[in-house]
Amino acid sequence: MALSPQKCFVEDRQVPLDATSDPPALFDGTTRLYISYTCPFAQRVWITRNLKGLQEEIKLVPIDLPNRPAWLKEKVNPANKVPALEHNGKIIGESLDLIKYVDINFDGPSLYPEDSAKREFGEDLLKYVDATFVKTVFGSFKGDPVKETASVFDHVENALKKFDDGPFFLGELSLVDIAYIPFIERFQIFLDEVFKYEIIIGRPNLAAWIENMNKMVAYTQTKTDSDYIVNYFKKFM
């Protein structure tokens, strides 16, 4: 898939809105993506927006989640969380639904292949990511991550072998890569720092995939500070 690199630029990060902040002019025709700079679920939609060259079409509204404004729940998202997309007079939530929505409903390069075999495999991987992969790795923090996460990281490694026309899950860059990278980014940092477990050892496809993802400014500008990740994830131990 050929992306237009000139469409993706590095943006200055705005100060997140907190409990003292006024809301934006809701439903005024502006398309807004409500995120937290540290939320992996919101990061998925942020990356999708960037890869499709929608930085001017979709305005980022960063939220300070620990001190979130009351209007986030009252006027934007009754679930009181991010990500949330304000588009065409409605609010849409849930990150995996949102990355598909942005891909289908906005201009820019398609992030999901037409090939039926790839689409079927992609749907399986999207079902696996939160229900099994993320859940298993988070659960391992209280035990032995090396043993408890081997099967799910091996599943990812084997999935990356499925198609040989590129280094990504479906060969070409897709929504599947976007769904996994925010969590693999965090797990790699935390497991290495706290448990001295390097997830790419013995997994060359995973190593190559991470290397290729890190070449994309559309992704790298969304990354979270390593110290924050380590300190936050320690809460789950």
TrEMBL record:
Keyword Ribonucleoprotein: no
Stated name of the protein: glutathione transferase
Enzyme kind, highest EC tier: transferase
CDD domains: GST_C_Lambda, GST_N_family
Domain of life: Eukaryota
SUPFAM superfamilies assigned to the protein according to its UniProt record, in alphabetical order: GST C-terminal domain-like, Thioredoxin-like
Keyword annotations of the record: Detoxification
EC number: 2.5.1.18
Gene3D superfamilies: 1.20.1050.10, Glutaredoxin
InterPro entries, alphabetized: Glutathione-S-Trfase_C_sf (IPR036282), Glutathione_S-Trfase (IPR040079), Glutathione_S-Trfase_N (IPR004045), GSTL1/2/3 (IPR044629), Thioredoxin-like_sf (IPR036249)
UniProt-recorded Gene Ontology molecular function terms: glutathione transferase activity
GO terms, biological process: response to toxic substance
Stretches assigned to the GST N-terminal domain: 29-110
Reaction(s) catalysed by this chain's protein: RX + glutathione = an S-substituted glutathione + a halide anion + H(+)
Pfam family, one: GST_N_3
Classification lineage: Eukaryota, Viridiplantae, Streptophyta, Embryophyta, Tracheophyta
Family statement drawn from the similarity comment of this UniProt entry: Belongs to the GST superfamily. Lambda family.
